Amino acid sequence: MKNEKSILLVDDSKELNDAAARVLRKSGFNVIQAFDGTECLSLLSSVKPHIVLLDVVMPGMDGIEVCRKIKSDPGTANLFVVLLSGMRVSPDQQADGLNAGADGYIVRPVQNSELVARINSAMRLVDSEKNLSNALANSQRNESKRKKAEKKTRLLNEELELRVAQRTEQLEAAIKELSDFSYSVAHDLRAPLRAVSCYSSILEGHFEKYMDDEGRRLFSIVKSNGTRMGELIDALLLYTNTGRGELNSGFVEMNDIVNKVIAELTPLYPDINFQIEVEELPTAVANEHMIKEVWSNLISNALKFSSRSESPQITIGSGKFENMIEYYIKDNGAGFDQRFVNKLFNVFERLHTTDEFTGHGIGLAIVRRIIHRHDGTVRAEGEVGKGATFYFTLPDKNK
Asked: Judging by DSSP bridges, how do beta strands 275-278 and 313-321 pair with one another?
């Protein structure tokens, strides 16, 4: 098989040059012949052999000088140069050749088989150097790509962080604006609503005796809707206020708050015997007033939605996982369809009509807003007719 490895053979003796060329070609090498140093250097401007086989003793420019010129030229410095020396070449001359950059020596006379073996050995060195050079080049390219990728990633991260900061600032401004607007609207609605309520009472006092049953019914609707609107405004103001101001957190004894809320709310159902079990609850680090509002809404809902059960039962407990404390309240009341669980914590969203159960649809939204301000989460599980369980988490700061 034809060997693609090329050799530039330089020897001023045509006889020796041709003899060596025949041996090497017979072994499959591509041999280019030159007969002096000048011709060698001229050929190297257009061809790049794998090995330059260079006779040391030549007229004009000897092999050592040619080797030095090859190694000093950046375009040919990496060529593998083997010097051919005769017995008459002294050790000092051989040292000069190595100092000039020669990669190896072959001393004549040499058997054909040895010549081929030495050239094959040199070729293996050339291949090893080439592979090492390619590996180094690939490594440098990969390192360059890695640095470019790191720089690009860093720039993208910086841009993303800037965008996030800008969007966060815009979102905070929008939330504050919306909160201020909601507070202003709700607050400003109170005055005209009080006027409606006041004048309705005056009208009722002066003209009720002139009203027929239908008039009294319509007037009752006006009053009840005015009352409901007042309750909605109060709830909306409460919802807005939960997102305003500082938290001012401290240690909160959850059992104390829960027991107070139960004592406040159960008298609203004097004819119902609730079975309420309160487990030992971990102390929380939170705003006490806000956490009481959370328990008030959750316990109020549990009482309301279980009040029609034959034996209403409510359980309040807790658990710990990772760095969070999870509190829960479970009842065996009306429950809800789990498919609509995402609606529960939205403002004015209700899964039951006011004819079934009274309410404004703001309580659970207040719960979510307060818990989110405390870096916690809320969730719920329920089944129609079998009750519901509401959970909220708070960071465990008791360590």
From this structure: parallel
Residue 224 structure tokens: 């009840």
**Treating both helix axes as pointing N-terminal to C-terminal, what angle do 91-99 and 63-72 enclose, rounded to 10 degrees?**
20
Query: Which CATH number is 6-110 given?
Result: 3.40.50.2300
CB contact set of 165 (below 8 Å; sequence gap of 6+): none
Which residues is 317 bridged to in the sheet?
328
pTM of the prediction? 0.48
Give per-residue pLDDT as tens, 61-113: 999 999 999 999 999 988 889 988 876 667 777 788 889 988 888 888 888 88
The answer regarding whether domain 250-395 maps to CATH 3.30.565.10 reads: yes
β-pair partners for 250: 286
Q: Find tokens 């939330």 and name the residue.
A: 175
Bridge partners of residue 105, in order along the sequence: 83
Residue whose structure tokens are 């060698």: 40
Q: Which residues contact 240 (CB under 8 A, 6 or more apart)?
A: 179, 182, 183, 186
Phi, psi (rounded to 5 degrees) for 84: -100, 120
Read off the DSSP letter of residue 64.
H
